[in-house]
Amino acid sequence: MLKCRKLLKKKLRHVAIIMDGNRRWAKNKGRFFILGYQEGIKAVHRTINFAILNRIEVLSLYAFSRENRYRPMLELKLLMQFFLQKIDDEIANFNRNNVCVKFIGDIKYFDDLLQKKIKLAEMSTINNNGLILIIAANYGGKWDIIEGIKKIIKKIESGFLHVNEIEESTLSNVLSTKDLAPVDLVIRTGGEYRISNFLLWQIAYSELYFTDVLWPDFNDCIFKLAIEVFLKRKRRFGS
Description:
Layout: E1 14-18, H1 22-28, H2 33-53, E2 58-65, H3 73-96, E3 100-104, H4 112-124, E4 132-139, H5 141-157, H6 168-172, E5 185-188, E6 207-210, H7 220-232
Parallel strand pairs: 1-2, 1-5, 2-4, 3-4, 5-6
C-alpha cells in the first residue's frame, strides 16, 4: 500500500469525488446500511491523507445530494445523527492536518443543531492553509446554477450589472465554488456512469474517471491509478 502513496510527479489542483456505494457495500456484507457509511468515513480519511501527501490543492467530496432527501425517513434520521457525530469528531483531525473545510449546498435544509456544527467546523478551520476540503451537503448542480442566476438578477436590478455585460465568468463568480481552482478530475466510485447533478457548470471540461469499486473500498492505489490515467490524457478544452 505504501508504494501507492508516493508523491505524484505532477500536481493536480482540484479533484472532485462522487462517493457512491456505501449502502451497496453494507448490503453485500449482509449488514445494516449505516455500517457502509462508517466504513466510508475510513475511505474519506484515506482520501484526505492521500490528497495532502500529493499536494492536491482542493478536494471536493459529494456527501449528500438534494435528491438524497427522498430516501426513507428512518434512514435520513440516522444519517443526520451520523453526520452530527462525525463533524464533532473530525474538527480536531482537520486542524491537526492543516485542512480548511468548507460546505457547499443548501445547508438551511438541515436542523439548527447540524447547521451550527457545520458553521463551527468552517470557523474552526478557516485559518488553515493546507488542503481545502469541500463537502457538498444537500447540494445539486442545478440548484447551484439557479442560486447564481438569482444573484445576477439582483445585481442587474440594483444597477451594478447590465445584461449585456453577462459572460461565463459572471456566473462562475457567483457559484458556491467561486474562489476555488477549476476541477481537473472527477472520480466516481460504485460502477455508475453518470454525474448525478454534481458541479454541473464547474466540470464542463473536467476529465472523468469511473471505477466499479464501492466507496468503502476506495484506497490510495485506486486514487493513484485514477490520477495516472488523468495525467496520460491530453486536455484540449474543446479546441
